[in-house]
Amino acid sequence: MTRSFRILAFQAAAMIACGFMMLTVAAITKAAPAPAAAAVTIGNFTFKNPVVTVKPGTTVTWTNADDIPHTVVSKDGVFKSRVLDTGDKFSFTFAKAGQFGYFCSLHPHMTGMIVVKA
Ligand SMILES: [Cu+2]
Predict the structure, then answer these.
(1) Distance 88 CA to ligand 1 centre (A)
(2) How far is the CA of 91 from the centre of ligand 1 (A)?
(3) Ligand 1 centroid vs 92 CA: distance in angstroms?
(4) Residue 18 pLDDT more than 60?
């Protein structure tokens, strides 16, 4: 093999390897599911959809559509919002399966539950 041929062969091999890597990246990107999302609206002293079932990895966003402030607080300390004024939002991503009961710390009779299952 001449020196220039060896360099050419190396370049070709590098390009093929690079191509395979890009294909692999494309395959991984394609396989990754789109981030899931769910929403809970707060209104009239209630969580409008009190029980929401989602898959692991889902981001749930609570929106306070009520005229008065509310909070979203996990019964088990998993998540806790600040005080949400009208129009404010709070989001939490549920990575693991389980049942996550929550309430409003300002009005503890307001309760809800996020059920996370694969
Ligand atoms: Cu409240």
Answers:
(1) 13
(2) 16
(3) 18
(4) no
pLDDT digits (tens, 9 = 90+) for 48-60: 999 999 999 999 9
For residues 44 and 24, give the distance between their C-alpha atoms in angstroms, rounded to a whole number: 50
User: Ligand 1 centroid to 70 CA: how many Å?
Assistant: 4
37-116: CATH topology is: Immunoglobulin-like (2.60.40)
Q: 90 versus 22: which is more confidently predicted?
A: 90
pTM given for the model = 0.72
Return the half-sphere exposure (C-beta side, CA atoms, 13 A cut-off) of residue 71: 14
Cα of 110 to ligand 1 centre, how many Å? 6
Question: How many distinct helices (H) and strands (E) make up the chain?
Answer: 1, 8
Distance 66 CA to ligand 1 centre (A): 9
**pLDDT tens digits along 68-86:** 999 999 999 999 999 999 9
Name every residue whose Cβ is closer than 8 Å to that of residue 72 and which is 6 or more positions away in sequence.
Answer: 42, 62, 79, 80, 81, 84, 90, 92, 102, 104
Residue identified by tokens 């599911």 is: 33
